[in-house]
Amino acid sequence: MYWTLDLASKLEDAPWPATKEELIDYATRSGAPAEVLENLQEIEDEGDVYESIEDIWPDYPTKDDFLWNEDEY
Question: At what angle are helices 20-30 and 34-41 packed, to 10 degrees?
């Protein structure tokens, strides 16, 4: 399983919180690339509910990771 920023961004608008099956359904309906579906299917399913993409890919960059100061602009 590998994630890239582009692949993970396909799940930004997913209906969080969601289960693995709900995420797979969303990815299928939204036309996400096959790699996203493969990554989601590789998640070990223990009935967990995921609150955000960070629960699936902990290294997903957030706004705090960028050196952009919105107050300056």
Answer: 170
- Which of helix, strand or coil describes residue 3? coil
Q: Strands 49-50 and 18-19, how do they pair?
A: antiparallel
Q: For residue 13, report the phi and psi dihedrals to the nearest 5 degrees.
A: -95, 15
Name 19's bridge partners: 49
The token duo for 57 is: 């890919």
At 35-47, the pLDDT tens digits run 999 999 999 878 8
Per-residue buried b or exposed e for 17-28, using 16+ beta carbons within 10 Å of the residue's own CB: ebebebbbebbe
pLDDT, residue 64, reads 59
Query: Rounded to an integer, what distance in angstroms lies between the CA atom of residue 63 and that of residue 54?
Result: 13
